[in-house]
Amino acid sequence: MSDVSVEKVKCLIIGSGPAGYTAAIYAARANLSPLLFTGIEPGGQLTITNEVENFPGYPNGVIGPEMMEDLRKQAERFGTDVRFEVIAKVDFSGPVHKAWTESGQEIQADTVIISTGASAKWLGIESEQRLMNKGVSACAVCDGFFFRGQEVAIVGGGDTAAEEATYLAKMCTKVHLLVRRDELRASKIMQERVLKTVNLEVHWNTEAQEILGSDGVEGVKVLNNKTGETSVLPVTGFFVAIGHKPNTEIFEGWLDMDENKYLKTVPGRSFTNIEGVFASGDAQDHIYRQAVTAAGSGCMAALDAERYLAEKGII
Ligand code: NDP
Question: Which residue puts its alpha carbon closest to atom 34 of ligand 1?
Fold first, then answer.
């Protein structure tokens, strides 16, 4: 790689969800001239959401991709250099951090803000993709409200599924929890909560085979993997809660992660184990995972980066 392609910046932001763009707004307004790489999915997970009703400041709701466009424009307004490219590799061994784009461009940065997010895991059946945002969702907190007074199904057996199933039960007439084994992986307390919710029916040893409907969900065909019997549940909403995967592969070996590969940060701060590298959003948060919490942590990361640069005498 020739030196000609090396670019030096004070603040490199990786990722373009609410965390990345909020970090960019703050960093740009602090005169850090941030350079932001959007990654494969510009705008992040919100671009696969339909309407966002729980982001403060939008009394009439906002379409997910529109909100992300607004955030991008706001970041650009103050001088963020937004590039629709992917960072493929990093090297955090020296005082100046290095990153390379997929096309081989080297970036050197005094600070790096990571906001690469997480991706929901999906079942991988054809009807799931086809009916995405038309009754199929991976976020009950985001989309459950659209199914109030209706009957829905949710797949999964972990804490997320248990939490989202009980959340949905508060607004839906009936919730079917589809569990592929004969037990839940969720914590005892969550299991108890699930089992004592009257309008929540657990279907053990049950797999979703096909989501029915063409322009909306009209039912789900399920298979009992013990008896081989199939049946159709009359639901109009279908939720998948089988876990998330943080987009942190390129940081392996450099940054401390938990057992599920979420980046570890100092509690209450955005510091990672490497000086000058900060983490925000879902890449480091498996608990809240909301646009507004991601945005808040992006702001924290930018403020931490700014203070770090000031302490080092760089700005
Ligand atoms: P988990 O990995 O804990 O659970 C995933 C669940 O989905 C498992 O029950 C798994 O089944 C099931 N599953 C996976 N793939 C499929 C598939 N293809 N078809 C059907 N079912 C499938 O993920 P969670 O998101 O639930 O939790 C992630 C982490 O976050 C955990 O550590 C959890 O404790 C934590 N968390 C904590 C909360 C809290 O404390 N309030 C709230 C939410 C999450 P199987 O069991 O058979 O493998």
Answer: 159
Segments of the chain scoring below 70 in pLDDT: 1-4, 50
CA 75 to chain centre: 20
Give the CA angle between residues 165, 169, 175 to the nearest 5°: 70
Beta-ladder partners of 112? 12, 277
Strand stretches in the chain, DSSP E: 7-14, 35-37, 51-52, 62-63, 81-83, 87-91, 97-101, 106-114, 118-120, 136-137, 151-155, 174-178, 200-203, 206-212, 219-224, 230-233, 237-240, 244-246, 277-279
Q: Write the pLDDT tens digit of every residue in 178-191.
A: 999 999 999 999 99
Contacts of 176 (CB under 8 A, 6+ apart): 151, 152, 153, 154, 201, 203, 220, 233, 235
Q: 284, 286, 288, 293: which to mutate for ligand 1, most atoms within 8 A of CB?
A: 286
What torsion do the CA atoms of 180, 183, 188, 190 make, to the nearest 10 degrees? 30
Q: Best of 242, 258, 262, 282 to mutate for ligand 1, by most ligand atoms within 8 A of CB?
A: 242
pLDDT in tens, 241-252: 999 999 999 999
pTM score, whole prediction? 0.81
